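hey can u check if this looks right to u? its 267 residues, i copy pasted from the old doc so theres a chance i mangled smth
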Amino acid sequence: MSSFIHLVCDYAPADLAWAEVMAALAAKLHDDTRMHITGVHPFDTVSTGFVVAQLALADTDLRPKNLLVFANTAPRRDRKEARSNNEGEGLLFATLKNGVQVLAVNSGFSLAFIRDEIQELWSTNVEEAGSQFRSRDYFPIAVSKASRGDFSFIQHKLNITEVVPDEPKDVIGYVDSFGNLKTTMRTGDAKLEALTPGMRIKVSVGQHLSAATVATGSFNVLEGDLAFAPGSSGHDRRYWELFKRGGSAADEFGHPTAGTQIKIQPA
């Protein structure tokens, strides 16, 4: 049974959608089940996947016991033609090597960041059509069943590498509330091996170019300086991020969205 559920959805803070989904879930879950919500920008499956991995792959002492992650970003972009009866991407169920369970809409990069940690991946019998608001009308039933250890909603075991795409490389993975740009460049990547603390580099994010200093942490640069350093996400292999001490890296680079390409080179 799952006593804690992380909800990752692309609803705006305090939007009516949150209220309706939370109410539908509360109506079906045990009273002692705790939930926490994390919002990403509309249709942003890159940030969704980044958040899912950060929450699901946390060390044992940093995550709740019996954790279920429910990721619901469904842009309905898997097909460009008109959809019949509000059909959307299917809901998948994954068990990870660390025991965490994940329910996620099969959209974009929603599962990409945990692909190598998936032990089993299953399709489900949850309706893919019939409601514009599947998050409220259909998905809570599967979440409730999974939380109780009832797996009657799963159908076919899937080939993980055929269904889940590679993690996107060299892009913005997530933009936090401080304007820090978390990238998908990770400690151990060959492109980062030549970087040493104090080195000046040129960084382009989309069409914006700025100079930055390679650092070892968030606060060992001067106030107002733009830095590039291993951040707080990524667990054993930290993702590097751009931050501006006392300011906003997002402002510096014109507020890029997740998925925007990033390039670095010596200054």
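The longest strand covers residues 118-124.
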